From TrEMBL:
Domain of life per record: Bacteria
GO biological process: amino acid biosynthetic process; aromatic amino acid family biosynthetic process; chorismate biosynthetic process; quinate catabolic process
PANTHER family referenced in this protein's UniProt entry, alphabetically: CATABOLIC 3-DEHYDROQUINASE
Function as written in the Swiss-Prot or TrEMBL entry: Catalyzes a trans-dehydration via an enolate intermediate.
Protein name: 3-dehydroquinate dehydratase
EC numbers for this chain: 4.2.1.10
Keywords in alphabetical order: Amino-acid biosynthesis, Aromatic amino acid biosynthesis, Lyase
Residues at the catalytic site: 21 (proton acceptor), 96 (proton donor)
Gene symbol of the encoding locus: aroQ
Amino acid sequence: MILIINGPNINMLGKRPKDIYGTESYDELEKKIYNFAEENKLAIEIFHSNSEGEIIDRIQRLDYKALIINPGAYTHYSYAIRDALEIATVPKIEVHLTNILAREDFRHRSVTAACCNGVISGFGFDGYILALNYISQPPTAYRGGVL
C-alpha cells in the first residue's frame, strides 16, 4: 500500500489564494489520485491532518510500502516530521503543489526533503501522479534527486 499524507491547509484547496493554488478543491485532488490508483491497480491510502503529531503518528505506523508526503508549511521547520521520515525506510517522495523555490524566501528550504528519495514541486495535482508513477515503476538507472 502507498500512503499519501497531506499536511496543514491542503484540505482548504479551492479556498486558498487561487492565483497560487488554483480553483480545484481537496475533494477534486483526492478524486484524481484515487482514479489514477484504480486505473493502475495501486493500493493507496490518503491521510490528511493539520496536526503535526497526527502526521508523525501516521508515519510511525510503518504499515505501508511507499510514502508520498506533502508536509505543507511543516516542510520548512518540522524536525519532528523529518525524524519520523528518517525512521521509515521505504521509498518516500515529497510533493508540493507550487514551486516552493519560486515563492517566499522562507519556503525555499525543506527540512524534510533530505529524508526523501526525491522532491516534486510546482506541478499542481499532477505532482502526486508523477510521484505515484515513480513509486510504482521506478526507473532502474536513477534513484533519488529532484524530479
